[in-house]
Every structure is written in structure tokens, then in C-alpha cells.
Amino acid sequence: MNQTAREWICLLKDLEKPVKYLKGMGEKRSGLYEKLGITTVYDLLYHFPRYYLDFTCPVQISQAPLGENCILRGRVVKKIPAARIRRDLTVYKAVFTDDSADITIIIYNSGYAFDKLQLDCEYFLVGKVTGNMLRREINSPQIFPADMCDLVQPVYHLTEGVSQLLLRQSMHEALKAFDRFIYEPLPKWVMQKYKLCSLEYALKNIHFPQDMHACEIASERLIFDELLTLQLGMLMMKERSRLSSGCRMKDVSIDDFYGSLPFTLTNGQLGAVNDCIKDMCGESPMNRLVQGDVGSGKTAVAAGAAYFAFKNGCQTALMAPTEILASQHYETMTEFLSPLGVKTALLTGSMTAKQKKLVKEGIESGEYSVVVGTHALVQKSTVFNKLGLVITDEQHRFGVEQRALLAEKGEDPHKLVMSATPIPRTLALMIYGDLDISVLKELPKGRQPVSTYAVTGKLRERTYNFIKQHLDEGRQGYIVCPMIDESDSDLRDVKSYAKKLSEGVFKDYSVGLLHGKMLPAAKEKVMEEFKEHKIDLLVSTTVIEVGIDVPNATIMVIENADRFGLSQLHQLRGRVGRGQFKSDCVLITDNPTDEVKQRLKILSSSSDGFRISEEDLKLRGPGDFFGSRQHGLPKLKIADMSRNTDVLRSAGAAARDILAADRKLEKRENACLKELVNMLFEKNLSDN
After folding, report:
1. Residue 426's pLDDT is what?
2. Would the CATH topology of 56-147 be identical to that of 450-606?
3. What's domain 255-440's architecture?
4. What is the pLDDT of residue 631?
5. What is the pLDDT of residue 545?
């Protein structure tokens, strides 16, 4: 390649032209493609197949497993006259053989497809084989001539109005456009070192491979590109944050903070506080993640960092994702810091205009040294006097840009992120690639282990009696119900379930209800009543996943546990066992498949959140690891960080080598990579 850097970027920009200009596309069709997230030729090229139909290895009819989709090759030996079952249903049948066995093709209401079948002609059939060992059938199969050219065919995500055939035709046109504007983003030395094919080969063979081996070679290159671009972006963000600190602090003692605490910090907590202090005294702003399992004591670390900032004359802002969690952090920070003369304020969206005005005046004047709140902290009307430390909790719920908005309230303030979701280190390095990491693995003294049991719905009544045992001992409990999409039907189910329990098996106990669609004031009221033991049993959705700390709660039952991810179940379980009493968690499922049993067994046998998160990642992949994608990580099109760990490591090593030689990607050989990094992160910010 002899293009200049400018030419490379121009070629890339040409592929960013609207897809409607491709041959055979037009305005109307491009509108359909937009529903698939395809607006440019580049988007189309990177709309990768979900899987492939590999006609090179058809299954013999005699060996075809029943109930599974198969590819068969054979010939039509008999066509049976059409049978009109009713006015709107005509059934066509044909006998198909490969000499190992026969199978009956059944086609509904399509005389055209039936007429196209020629006796003694060979075809491929794609579909689910049903029937029994003596009489096999295949209903409404896809039918392909056996002499077709493409023996490996891509299958894409579609939308109404776009067929596989149409999308394949469009892809051929996009590849022709790529041939005109061909570019190679990787430096030659990277391709040679990691034995990667060219981008031209990769794009052609990911869409229309000659065989599955060619597809694997193409896939490895595209996965490498995606993970390299992502890690380059993360490392460059980290580098930018290292430039200079607008609030460099002096190393002052906080022994009075340690002495005032009603407990002794664990070694992990002390280490994390010391990490923060060391960072805040450095020339660059702190960018640190404190990652710990449920109940590992992250808030105490945050309080220590905030007190250090206070002793250096700086304010701290702590942003939480929900008002419930913000209120709890406010109470905890006040408890830890008020004896030391630190004034703390709470700022949330549900406060009255007058309350907000008074708090914001106190923030701007410097009266409050620590401010805890929700998104209200990033509003333009919230002005800080001297913001030196920004703390965000449950970072993956915010996204990169919201953390940046809060940081803009000060002059390059120090940033501390707390995550109660134990994340496998490989994934943590990707999501928090611009941060240093401190891990809390020890649990503070006094935390009780939680015994966990997985049962089927047949034991529901016995489980209710188990709850009563806890309540009769003066303890409290939770019953958690899933809400998949917070639809009205889900909400009715939660409400009716709570009503049924309060009027039935738990009529002699006080039963409360908590769900996400309640007004903040109503939620607060229920939580306060639960904390004050005015409520014995709280029926709740996952709104309790973070933010409720009731040491007297010792029993949790999670209904339909198969609908939750393992990490979320572990988070929920962490709401009990927070006091001195032995605690239990019961997982109920009415769907005891082998997969569900395997997942729930992992949770029942381990209390190590990091091990559980590793298993969760293997089972579900990073796309579903956090539920809805709110963690600020650019969406990956082809890479899977739970399966492509080797490529992840190679791409990470390449990213570090590239930036070591060219910190800002200014060399000609890196110009295209720089443009790809910008495209990836700009698109991510606009999507969030």
C-alpha cells in the first residue's frame, strides 16, 4: 500500500457514505436497513453473519437427529398430489432420498415452491427433521439446488422487508465499493507478528467464505481489529487523564479518621485507601476503580478518600445511580465523617426546588465538603467551590460520558469508581481500561456467610414455612420477583403476588411491596418502614439490588431465579447476612432444565463473587453480563471477550506496543487506526 495517511482517511470516509447510494438500494430500502443499524456502506460491511449454512458437510437422512435443524442432500423421487385441507390450507408433499433413507418434504400453501421441485433433481434441504425412526418429515424447509456455487452461505440478522437474499446482494455491492476504496488499517509489522490476514481477505471471507477455514481466518483478523481499536481507545483515554492534576494534594495523615471508625478496616480496605492517597498526591489525576464483592466495605474506602480530600481543602462529589443508594451513602458518609467536622449534603431529583436551591448555595459557597447525589449533581445549576474528588458508584450504570460530565465540574479532579459487581479481570480491564484497579477480596468482620439453596416450585409451600421460622425469631425477609421489562403485566404480577401473600399464608405478618415504578417518596417510605421493622416481609423487584442495608434481614427467597444472571443473583443475595444473625437464600425455579440446574448449582456452592462472575461471563457473554447495556463499553460486533481471551491479550499487547512508539497515533502507519478509534468512541457516546 502506497497511500498517504490523508488518502487512507479519505478512503475510510468514502465508506462512510450513506448506504442508499449503493446499486439497487434507494431511499425506501435504505430506510429498512436503518432498522438494523445500517446507515453507511461501512455499517453494512460490518454487519456480520449470525452463523453460516455449511453445505459442504450435509447429514445423511438416516443419521439426522430428530427435533434438530439439519442440512440434507438428496433427490426428489416422488411428488404427491396436493391435499386441500380447508379453504385457507393446501398441503404439498414430496418424497426425498439420499439412498440411506427417505424423508417426506411438507410444504404449506406454496404451489410455486412445490412446482419448482423436479423429479430426480438433486437439492439441499435446510430445516428441522421430525417424525420417528421409521417415518421422517421435514416441514417447510429451505430448498437450494445442489449445483449452486456458494457452498457456505451467511445468515444475517434481518428486519421486516429485508430477506437473506436481498441482504446478500447488498453485501456484494458493498464489497465492490470496498474494492474501489480499499485500505489496510494495521501496520505491516502487526500483521506479520500476529499472523493476520489482510482486511480485504477478512471482509470478503467473513461474508462469503470459500470454506469454514477461510471464515475462521477472517474472523480472527476482524476480532483482533475490534479488540485492538477498543484497547487503543481505552489506553489513550487513560493517557489523556494522566496529563496534569488540577488538584494535587499533600500527603497528610488521616489517622484520626481510622481512629474514629467503629470498626477496624481490612487489609484490602487499608490498601485501597493508601492507593487513593498515593494517586491524589501524584502529578496526574487519580483514575481508580475500587472493585469489591457485596459487603466488602467500598463505602469506607470512599469515606477515607473523601476525608483526605477534605484535609487538603477540596470538595468531594459522590454520584449514585438511584435515590435509594444515594440516601444510604449520604447516611453512611455522614456517620463516618461528621464526627470529624466534615459537612455532608444530599442532592437528589425528588427534593423540592427550595431544598435544592439551599443545598446548591451551600455547595457553591464551600459550606459542604462532601456532596452525595444522583444525576442532579451533573446539572448546569450545580456549581462546586473547589471540587477535588469525584466518586461514582456502580459505574457500569452510568457510562463513560456521565463520569466525564461530573469531572468537568472541577479542574481535572481525581476520580474514584466503586463497583459492587465483581467483574472478571479481563473484562474489568476493558470496561475500566482508563482506570487503575484496587480489589477488595476480604469481607469485614461480622459479615455472616449466606447459606443458599436451589429448589423447584414444588417446594414453594415448604419455603414459605422456612420464611416464617425466620420471622418468628424476630428477623425479617425478602421475596424478590423478576420484572423482565417493567411491563404493566409484570407489575400486576408483583402487586397481585404481594396481595395474595399478605391475605393468605403471611396474613399474620406485615407484608410490604417495593417496585421500580413507585414514586421516590413512596419507595423511601417503604424502605424506612422496613428498616424500622414495621414491615416483616418485603416483596420486591430487583430495585433492592443495591441500596438497602437492613442487618435484621436474614432470609431471601428469589422467585423464578432462572430469569436472572448469576452476578445479579449474587448481588441480591448480598442484601442478607449483613448483621450478626445466620442468613439463608432460597432460589426457586419452575424451569429446572439442565442448564438452569448447572447455573444455580454454581451459586449454591460458592459465595465468591469473582468466581461467580467468571462463570456468568462464560455462560452469558459480556453483552448480557450487566443486563441492559449501560456500562459505557462500546458495543462489540464480532468479538466475544469471554471466548476470545487469547486474541484479547494479543490485541492488548499490540495496542501497548503501538502507543509506546506513537503515543497519539500521529505516524502515517497509524493514521487509519486513529480514525477507527475516533469512530468507535464517537459512535458509542452518541448511542448512550
Report:
1. 58
2. no
3. 3-Layer(aba) Sandwich (3.40)
4. 44
5. 59
